[in-house]
Design a protein that fits this description.
The complex is a heterodimer of chains A (370) and B (410). Chain A contains 17 helices and two strands. By secondary structure, chain A is an all-alpha fold. Chain A has one domain: ABC transporter involved in vitamin B12 uptake, BtuC. Chain A starts with a helix and ends in an 11-residue tail after the last helix. By secondary structure, chain B is an alpha/beta fold. Chain B folds into two domains: 146 residues, 3-Layer(aba) Sandwich (Rossmann fold); 168 residues, Rossmann fold (3-Layer(aba) Sandwich). Chain B is 43% helix and 15% strand. Classes of the chains: A mainly alpha (370), B alpha/beta (410).
Chain lengths: 370, 410
C-alpha cells in the first residue's frame, strides 16, 4: 500500500482509456458486443449451423475449399474497408476485377514467360485506377459514389470492347496456379489453398497498416474530415491511397479468380456490392470513422457462409440478392447504433448529468446544463 | 434501465439469422426439396406431361422425329442441307444487282455467336467477290429487345435495304418488328431464335432445343442409374432455344428417375464452380448437364478440386470442352447447335437473288459429337482458340484457318 502511492493518486483523477478500463476478458466481451466483434460470433454461429445442416461441411478439406474460394471476396472486402472507413465508396471494384481477368486472359495467353510482366502490369493498372478514383473524388470534389460508378461503367465498356462480352481462353496454368494451387498434406486441414495464405498475409498487412499513422489518420478523416484537415492531415493523399488500396485489392482478387474460375467477362460482377455488404456486415460504419479491418474480412466469410447455408437448406439461389439487400440495410441500421455499445462506457456519459443535478444545486442558475 | 449491451450485441448477430430464418420458411413452400432419392413426382418445376410456356409436346415429338430425318442435299455441305417441306417461291426477287443486306443481330456476347459472326463475315466476303452482295450493314442490339426493335425500324425507314436478316433477341418481343419488316415486301430471313409469325421468307435454324435436350438427357440417362443426381447448368432464362433444351431434358430425366436440379449461371465460371462444389458437399453428383458448353471447363475443374470422380457430362462442341473432355477422359457427349447456320443465312440470300426456291422453314442438321468422333474434330480444329466451335462449317471459306485462329471480332 505504500509504494503505489504515486500511481494510485492520479488514477481516480483521470480514468484510463475506456478500452483499457477492464481486464482482458472484459475487453474481449466488450469487443464482441460491438458490431465489429459480433461478426466473428456470427461467422462461428453460421459455420456451426451449416455443419449441423450438413455434417459434410465439417470436413477440413471442405472448409479449406470454402475458405479458398472466399479469399477473393474477403480480400475485396479488406480493400473496400479502407475506402468506406475514410467516408467514401468504391463501386468500381467489380469492374476492376473484370478488367484484370480479361487482361490476364488476353495478354498472358499460352506464354509462361509473360506471367510476371503481365502481373506487374495488372497491379499497375489497379493502382492507376485507384489513383484516378481518389484524385477525382478529393481534388475535383466529385462524390466518390459518382466517380467510382463512372469508373465501373468505363471499365465495363472497355471489357466488352476487348471481349465482345464472351469468354476468351484461359491463361497458362502457371498463372492460374496462384488462385487454384494448394499445399498438400498439411496436418489437421488436409491442404492449404494458396488464396487462403494470400488472404492471411494481406489481412496481417492490413491490420498492421491500420495501426500505423496512415490508418489512424484515415479513421480520423472518416470520422471528421474538417478537423482532420485542420490538424494538418493531407486529406486528398490519404483518401487517394485508400482508393489505390481498394483497386489493388480488387486486382489481387482478379488474379485469384482467374485461377479459381477462369476467364470470363462476367467474373467479378457484383463484387462491389458483395464487398460493401461484407464490410457493413463486419460492423464498419458507412460514412466512415469506425470499424475494424479484420471485421470486414470476417464479414465476407460470414456472408459467404450464410449463402452456403442457404444452399444447404435448398433455398433457391434467386433469393441471394434479396438476402444481400436486407443484410445491407439491417447491418447499416444496427452498426450505426451498435458502436455506442460495449466500446464506450455509457456510464460516464449518462451518469454525469444525472448525478450533477441533485448534488450541485447551483443556486441562481436558470440556463443550467441545457 | 439502459439497454443492456448484451441485447444490442444479440441484435447484431440475430439480424442475419432472422433473414436466414425467413428464407428457410419460404423454402418449404417454393421449392419442395429435390433431395437425392426423392420421389421424382414431387420434384420442382412444371409438370412436363402438360404443355407449358416452354414445353409443347407436339414440338417435342416433331424434333424427336427430325433427329433421324433424311436431309436433302450433300452431306459434305451440311449448311445447305434441309428437311423436305414447304418452299418459298423467290422468283420475284431475282436480280443481277449486288444486294444491300441489313442484319439486325441480337448480340455477339457469347463464344457461339462470336464464332458464327466470324464465319458469316467470311461468307460475306465470298459473296461480295461474286457480286451477289454489295454491302452488309449490321446493327448489334447487345442483348437488348428495345435496341433491336429500334434497329429493325431504322433499317425499314432509312436502311435502303434489299434484304433483311434478323437474329431475334427474344421471341415474343421481336415478333411485331419482324412483321413490320415483312410489310416492306422485301425478303426477310430469320435465323437462330424464333418469332411468333411466319411472314418471313425463310426461318433458318438447326433442328432445335428439344432435339438437344433429347440427345443429352438420353445420353445421361443411359450412362447413369435411376436415382443418380444430375446438376443442370443453364445460362439464362427466357430464350426459347435454351428453355426448350432444358424442358425436353427435364422431362426425360423425370421419366428415367434421374434426380436433376437446375441452376442459372450466366456462364460465369466462378458461379459454376461454387454451385458444383456446394452440390458435391451435399452429396454425390453423378452427371452434369449443360444447356451450352460455355463454362464446361469450370464445372469439370470443380470435381477435380474436390478430388472426386468426374461426372458423366454433356457440354457442347466448343473447343474448350472438347479439349478438357479428351484430357480428363470423362464419359461425355458434345451436343451441337449447328454454328454453320450463320453462313446458311447469307447463302439463302444468294438463292433468293437467283430466284431459287428456298425452304420456308429451313431445318439444318444438328448432330452431336460422340467420343469416337472427338479426335477427328480436335485434329481438324487444331490451333483454334478455346472459344471456337468444332462444327463451325467454314473450312472452304476465304481466310481459313487463320481468321478463325486469330479470332478478331469483325
Amino acid at each position: 500500500m505504500s509504494t503505489p502511492v504515486t500511481t494510485s493518486t492520479p488514477a481516480p483523477a483521470r480514468a484510463a482509456i475506456p478500452a483499457h478500463q477492464r481486464g482482458l476478458g472484459g475487453r474481449l466481451l466488450a469487443a464482441i458486443l460491438t458490431p465489429g466483434g459480433a461478426v466473428f460470433v456470427l461467422a462461428a454461429v453460421l459455420l456451426i449451423a451449416t455443419i449441423q445442416a450438413n455434417p459434410n461441411f465439417g470436413d477440413p478439406g471442405v472448409v479449406m475449399l470454402f475458405l479458398g474460394r472466399t479469399a477473393p471476396i474477403a480480400i475485396a472486402a479488406i480493400g473496400q474497408y479502407y475506402v468506406i472507413v475514410s467516408g467514401e465508396f468504391d463501386l468500381s471494384m467489380g469492374a476492376v476485377i473484370g478488367t484484370q481477368v480479361v487482361l490476364a486472359g488476353n495478354m498472358i495467353g499460352e506464354d509462361p514467360d509473360k506471367v510476371v510482366p503481365v502481373t506487374v502490369l495488372m497491379l499497375l493498372v489497379g493502382a492507376a485506377v485507384g489513383f484516378v478514383n481518389g484524385v477525382v473524388t478529393t481534388l475535383l470534389r466529385v462524390p466518390s459514389f459518382i466517380v467510382t460508378l463512372g469508373m465501373m461503367l468505363a471499365l465495363g465498356g472497355l471489357v466488352s470492347y476487348l471481349t465482345g462480352g464472351a469468354a476468351t481462353g484461359n491463361p497458362v496454368d502457371e498463372f492460374r496456379e496462384i488462385g487454384r494451387g494448394r499445399f498438400e498434406n498439411v496436418p489437421l486441414v488436409e491442404f492449404l489453398p494458396y488464396p487462403l495464405l494470400i488472404l492471411v498475409v494481406l489481412a496481417i498487412v492490413a491490420s498492421w497498416l491500420m495501426r500505423r499513422p496512415f490508418g489512424r489518420n484515415l479513421l480520423a478523416v472518416g470520422d471528421n474530415p474538417e478537423s482532420a484537415e485542420r490538424s494538418g492531415t493531407s486529406v486528398w493523399w490519404l483518401k487517394t491511397r485508400a482508393f489505390m488500396i481498394s483497386s489493388l485489392a480488387a486486382s489481387v482478387s482478379g488474379i485469384l479468380l482467374v485461377g479459381y474460375a477462369g476467364v470470363h467477362p462476367s467474373v467479378g460482377d457484383g463484387y462491389e456490392f458483395t464487398a460493401i455488404t461484407a464490410v457493413v456486415l463486419g460492423g464498419v460504419l458507412l460514412g466512415g470513422g469506425r470499424g475494424w479491418v479484420l471485421s470486414a474480412a470476417a464479414g465476407a466469410i460470414a456472408l459467404e457462409l450464410l449463402f452456403t447455408l442457404l444452399t444447404v437448406k435448398e433455398v433457391e439461389s434467386t433469393w441471394r440478392d434479396t438476402v444481400q439487400g436486407v443484410i445491407i440495410i439491417l447491418a447499416v441500421a444496427v452498426a450505426a447504433r451498435g458502436w455506442q455499445a460495449g466500446r464506450r462506457p455509457r456510464g460516464s456519459a449518462r451518469q454525469a448529468p444525472s448525478t450533477r443535478i441533485p448534488t450541485t444545486p447551483t443556486p441562481g442558475t436558470t440556463n443550467g446544463d441545457n | 434501465m439502459r439497454k443492456s449491451p448484451l441485447l444490442r450485441g444479440a441484435v447484431v448477430s440475430a439480424a442475419a439469422l432472422l433473414v436466414l430464418a425467413a428464407c428457410s420458411t419460404d423454402d418449404s413452400v417454393d421449392d419442395p426439396a429435390p433431395d437425392a432419392g426423392a420421389d421424382p413426382e414431387t420434384s420442382e418445376s412444371a409438370d412436363a406431361s402438360a404443355d407449358t410456356e416452354w414445353f409443347v409436346q407436339a414440338d417435342f415429338d416433331e424434333q424427336d422425329a427430325q433427329r433421324s430425318a433424311t436431309f436433302e442435299g450433300d452431306d459434305a455441305t451440311p449448311w445447305l442441307q434441309y428437311i423436305d417441306g414447304p418452299m418459298t417461291d423467290t422468283k420475284k426477287y431475282a436480280t443481277q444487282e449486288a444486294q444491300k443486306v441489313c442484319f439486325a443481330n441480337a448480340s455477339i456476347s457469347n463464344p457461339w455467336r462470336q464464332t458464327g459472326w466470324i464465319t458469316m463475315n467470311q461468307q460475306l466476303k465470298a459473296l461480295q467477290d461474286s457480286k451477289v452482295i454489295g454491302e452488309m450493314e449490321t446493327r448489334d442490339a447487345q442483348d437488348d429487345d428495345n435496341t433491336q426493335i429500334a434497329d429493325i425500324d431504322y433499317f425499314i425507314a432509312e436502311g435502303n435495304c434489299d434484304v433483311f436478316i434478323i437474329s431475334p433477341n427474344s421471341t415474343a418481343a421481336m415478333t411485331p418488328a419482324v412483321e413490320r419488316a415483312c410489310e416492306t415486301g422485301k425478303p426477310v430471313i430469320v435465323f437462330d431464335r424464333g418469332v411468333n409469325t411466319d411472314c418471313y421468307t425463310s426461318f433458318i435454324h438447326p433442328i432445335g432445343g428439344y432435339a438437344w435436350g433429347i440427345d443429352t438427357a438420353n445420353f445421361l440417362s443411359e450412362n447413369l442409374e435411376e436415382g443418380d443426381k444430375v446438376v443442370a447448368l443453364r445460362i439464362l432464362p427466357g430464350v426459347d432455344v435454351l428453355e426448350t433444351r432444358w424442358a425436353a431434358a427435364e422431362k426425360i430425366f423425370k421419366d428415367n428417375g434421374i434426380d436433376a436440379v437446375d441452376y442459372f449461371t450466366g456462364a460465369d465460371p466462378s458461379k459454376i464452380k461454387q454451385i458444383i462444389s456446394d452440390e458435391l458437399v451435399k452429396g454425390d453428383v453423378k452427371g452434369i448437364w449443360m444447356d451450352a458448353g460455355d463454362g464446361a471447363v469450370a464445372a469439370i475443374e470443380a470435381f477435380e478440386d474436390a478430388g472426386v470422380d468426374l461426372p458423366v457430362m454433356t457440354g457442347e462442341d466448343e473447343m474448350s470442352f472438347l479439349r478438357k473432355w479428351e484430357e480428363t477422359g470423362l464419359t461425355g457427349l458434345a451436343p451441337v447447335y449447328s454454328n454453320f447456320q450463320w453462313r446458311t443465312t447469307l447463302l439463302a440470300v444468294e438463292k433468293i437473288v437467283k430466284g431459287e426456291a428456298i425452304p420456308s422453314e429451313w431445318v439444318l442438321p444438328q448432330v452431336p459429337i460422340t467420343e469416337d468422333e472427338r479426335a477427328d474434330f480436335l485434329e481438324e480444329n487444331d490451333g483454334m482458340p478455346d472459344g471456337h466451335y468444332a462444327k463451325f462449317g467454314g473450312e472452304d471459306l476465304p481466310g481459313y484457318p487463320q481468321v478463325w485462329q486469330d479470332r478478331k471480332i469483325p
